[in-house]
Amino acid sequence: MESGKYASVTDLAVAEKINDSYVCRTLRLTLLTPDIVETALDGRLNPAVELAELRSLPAEWSLQRTKLAVTVEYLATRSQPRCRSNERCPRYSGARCLGTL
Hints:
- The protein is mostly helical.
- The chain has two domains: 31 residues; 70 residues, no CATH class.
- 41% of the residues lie in helices and 0% in strands.
- α1 crosses α2.
- The longest helix has 8 residues.
- The N and C termini lie far apart (37 Å).
C-alpha cells in the first residue's frame, strides 16, 4: 500500500485472496514500537503474549510499552535473566510481563 500498488486495504485483500479484516489486523502490527518488535524478533518476548494481544495494542507507543510492561531501559538490560512468568508483572502495576527482567 505504501508503494501505491494498492489503493486500499480492500484492493490488497482482493489481490492476495484474503479477508480484508485479516489484512487490517495484520497491518496493525506495523504500528508496534521498534523495541517491542526487536524483543519479539530476538525471541525475548514472553510466550504468554499472544498475537491477538499485539494486534490490539493502542497506536501510541508509550501506551504500548505500559500495557506490555516495557520501557527502553528495561529492554536494554539484556544480561539479566528472562522472566518466565505467564502471570502479570509485579514490577509494572500488573501489566502482562513482556519477558526480560
